[in-house]
# Entry
Amino acid sequence: MMLNHRPYQDWHEGLTVQGVIEHMKFTWPKLVVKINGKLIWPEQYGQAQLAEGDDLEIIHLLGGG
# Structure
């Protein structure tokens, strides 16, 4: 599995997006998450399971003015 275009070494069967967020200690309140280019909403993080060949992107959303 790839996380933000880098190999993610801790993939295991049943791993979810929420598991990756917790393992990587991502605490930013606004995240954009995509699995293989498909947008995943925050309420789906705990159910969205990752396969060994998936490409996961977790992006911190920033704003300014």
